[in-house]
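Hey team,

Filing this mostly as a record. A colleague (T.K.) asked me to run one chain through the structure pipeline before their review meeting, and I want the input and output archived in the tracker in case anyone asks later how it was produced. No errors, nothing strange. Just documentation.

Input sequence:
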Amino acid sequence: MCVAVSGKLIEKDENNGRVNIRGNVITVELGIVDAEVDDYVLVHAGCAIAKVSQSDSEELDELLREIGQ
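Output structure:
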């Protein structure tokens, strides 16, 4: 099963960015998403695949926490 997670874009350098996901900062490819710093993005396999709202990001995070319990 493949799962995408969401986080906040905290740095951007052309087609790469750094995303904070639950306190973990990872580098992601931004080539297919038009995102700016402070946007929330959905990340799968090291690539941002969509922009999402902050509320959608928080809801997804809560759902993943429930699944993990």
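Quick notes for T.K.: The domain at 5-68 is CATH 2.30.30.140 (SH3 type barrels.). The longest helix spans residues 54-68.
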